[in-house]
Amino acid sequence: MSAADTPTPDDLYTWAADLERTAQRFTDLKTQMDAVSVTDTSADGKISVTVDANGSPTSITLAPSTRGADPATIAAELMACIHRGQAKLRDRITGLVTDSVGDTGPGHNIIDQYAERFPDPEPTPPAPAEPAFVPTEPQVPQHQQPPAVLPHSRTPDRNAIYEPDEPDDEDRFYQGKSWLV
């Protein structure tokens, strides 16, 4: 190493000041990133999900009209809202990193980590319109009709009157009349 390659004290002070400014920019970036949250709402406005800077859901709002809807449809739309919110988060973090620390190696690492964790969501087909609920009597196909009640069976038939084949002692005592009379 020659004497010309040896840094001067002024060079070291400048280098240290640059490191402090860079460290402060990353500290500010971290503060801004921690404050980010993104909300996504379903196309019909019935479901809304907010995700924090880590992509974790912090709030889920369901409209009253989701009551009675197909649970699988609601779950699918919830997951779609979360994935879209995470993709929006990735884009917002990319903008923050670019504005705060510029085109740097650590900045690219942050952007790449968010891009890996939160890829673009798969396009979801539109949900079929829910048919209006019309209460009707259940229709049982003929081949599934319950079997007819057989006499002297234990199958409940509340409208049938059961009379034994042979009278028992109580029937003889009351002579076919009710004991309530």
TrEMBL record:
Pfam families: YbaB_DNA_bd (PF02575). It comes from Nocardia halotolerans. Residues 116-181 are annotated as: Disordered. This is YbaB/EbfC family nucleoid-associated protein. Residues 130-151 have a biased composition (Low complexity).
